Amino acid sequence: MSAPVRAVLKEGTKLSQLVACLDAKPRLGLAGVKSLKLSYAFRNDHFGARHFAKEDLPRIRWANPNLDIQVERAHKTASDQWRPELVVGFADGKSTTLNLQDKFSKTILSELMDTAGDKSWKDYKALKAASGEPLFPAPSPDASSAKPLNLKPKIPAAEAQKLPSLQSFRELNPGSVSATGKVPSSTSSKDAGATANSIPAEPAKTQAAAAATS
After folding, report:
1. Minimal CA–CA distance to 40: which of 152, 199, 193?
2. Exposed, middle or buried: residue 110 (CB in 10 Å: 0-12, 13-18, 19+)?
3. DSSP secondary structure string, 153-194?
4. Neighbouring C-beta atoms of residue 59, cutoff 10 Å
5. H helices then E strands: how many in the chain?
6. Mean per-residue pLDDT for 74-102?
7. The pLDDT of residue 206 is above 50
8. Buried b (16+ CB within 10 A) or exposed e, 141-176
9. pLDDT confidence of residue 57
10. pTM for the full model?
11. Exposure winner among 6, 151, 166, 173, fewest CB in 10 A?
């Protein structure tokens, strides 16, 4: 078999695996939702929100190709105390905000789907409840052998629920790293960073093909 043929087969396998992952049940269709806006720390905090962005947002995009998804990963130092959150914007102009502080990624996903999931999500939950099975499959052997996600609360739960959003924190602390985006020279590049981006509403299969060939 020639090298070009092997390369094509390899890329085809990668694409098939990616599509299978995106198509895995439950389907993450949202009803009446226009936008999602997720904000969390660039690194070293907000682990559940970060894993949600990595593991679940691609599947949400796949199931909702026209959804406006905005993600902001902001500078944050240990002294900057604000919560990660997900703002769900509905087509009727209303919105609701999910506090993601100290929550696992699948807890975040469940709360989002319970808030705005379409009929397929409700049917899926009913089926799992009747069978006594968990909502989400158990982690794969590779995932279970990875380093456990550390979500030990850094502050008491009652205080955590009162933390301001990133936007409110910036308004209250205009000189903070989270507000200015300027990292002190004494701060390691591993401890702070920032980026804001949207997940483009391209046709889902085009996105999958691009990801598989990158």
Report:
1. 193
2. middle
3. -SS-HHHHTTPPPHHHHHHH-TTSHHHH-PPPTTS-TTT---
4. 17
5. 10, 5
6. 94
7. no
8. eeeeeeeeeebeeeeeeeeeeebebbeebbeebeeb
9. 95
10. 0.73
11. 6
